[in-house]
From TrEMBL:
Domain LapB rubredoxin metal binding positions: 351-375
GO molecular function: iron ion binding
Cytoplasmic side: 24-384
The name this protein goes by in its record: Lipopolysaccharide assembly protein B
Amino acid sequence: MDFDLSWLLLGLPLAFVLGWLASRLDLRQLRFENRQAPKAYFRGLNFLLNEQQDQAIDAFIEAVQNDPDTQELHFALGNLFRRRGEYQRAVRVHEHLLSRADLNRADRDRAQHALAQDFLSAGLLDRAETALQKLEGTRYENEARLALLAIYERSREWAQAEAVATKLDASDQASYAARRAHHLCEQAAEHSARGDADAALRLLQQAAQLAPDAPRPPIDTAALQLRQGRAMEAWTTLSGLSRTAPLALPLYAAALQQAAQAAGEQAAAADLLRARYEAEPSIDVLEALMALEATGGDAPRDRYLEHLARQPGSLLAASRWLAGETLRDDARTHPPVQRALDQVARPQMRYRCAACGFEAHQYFWHCPGCQAWDSYPPRRVEEL
């Protein structure tokens, strides 16, 4: 059978025309889609700038549907969800990004970091810990370590906190020596509570080496030595601390007085406390000094009046002086006056965090309110 070339001559132009029409249709569709995605994206930005988060989310969802491969839209949408407190939706967005095989390393690390932030914001600390640990070796490494440190400190996992703080210390961006010393002191307290005094003392010695100027390791060491009946060692520890950290003396004045009495160093301790009180009056230092000066079991109560002369507004001194006095003229007035004065004076006995203002009757090295370290001045509220 002969092949008719006329069909070939007719078919080539027809194929060309059909191909051209198909390409035009594809190009129009592509242009339409490209116009739709930027419009939705910029509309979302406009809503966001006007603080209309609901409309911004709707616009970004539309943009993602038009162009599901755009990572930036996913990140913007995930961040919006997190800011609105819709943590589950934020997690789904970032987990979707991490599941994509075509995501490059930088965007994968960014998505992992965003996912960790989602879990932190939602208070899911165990899942946040796992997500943050995966950022080791990335450009988010230090930020992840800081977040892990906060998690471990909040959950009182002191060994893990100390390990993370050691890595941060090695990065040379800031010194974490004082913070690590606190972690070791916390671990020492746990060992001491379990009856392992030797392990506690070893940890306290490490803490003192890490932060030689910090008052906590010697204070905790002296307290442990007193419980073990090693009064002379406790006196030596605290008298040495009085030279390196005199401002913290109100915190350990009572322990110093007990150690001095047990070790027969009352005169030296009285001189030390008297000198510090003259430099900076404090009710805690005063009462330790009064305990040392007591004769026959009676403390010299005129000391409270002397303190009132130096600190006229001291409700603590007034309350404690009145508690030991007998009102001869009308004994019936004493109890209600005493109760009223005690009630007013009680808040003045607290310690106050300088960072957040949280007040407590107990002195904290680690503020329960803002989680700051060493934020409590070693003086009562009344004396600030």
